[in-house]
């Protein structure tokens, strides 16, 4: 579980950074209470939610897809655009999952939806990255994102981590485990891979099958 501390010690949602460079949106971090509060999401103009937790799910469906669909189905048109990464808060994640989380978040902010009736949630608003407690998995991913997307302000991953921890109101005595060290290392390695990918470095040649 992400949070070993009482939930009242930090807000349901924490504004981490305004006007992310190149996207023009604000990014929030929160736990399950904030992510599950649709009224609060609307108040913060959050239209996109990226859930980092494999052991947490939400049913954001607010209306059926069309006539004949069951009104009480757990699928349908959602109140927000919802993306699921599904990290473990500790050991057990393939090392590429944090990398995929970065591109999932970047993609969620960059997608251009087709002008079709089946794509109803077209609003461009702010984004929430959440996990169960909003202190480990989501903090790691958002720090990685800020470091890569805003290197002038966050030249190192550690600088981005400290910023997210502070804005999330994590206590200094929990920084050693918030985020979990293995998630920080996964973010550090992902930052290196992203630099290689974005610079277009050549892919190593595959060994021949002689």
From TrEMBL:
Record PANTHER family: DUAL SPECIFICITY PROTEIN PHOSPHATASE, DUAL SPECIFICITY PROTEIN PHOSPHATASE MPK3
One GO CC term, this protein: cytoplasm
CDD domains: DSP
UniProt protein name: Tyrosine specific protein phosphatases domain-containing protein
Keywords recorded for this protein, A-Z: Hydrolase, Protein phosphatase
PROSITE patterns: TYR_PHOSPHATASE_2
Segment forming the signal sequence: none
Sequence ranges assigned to domain Tyrosine specific protein phosphatases in this UniProt record: 116-168
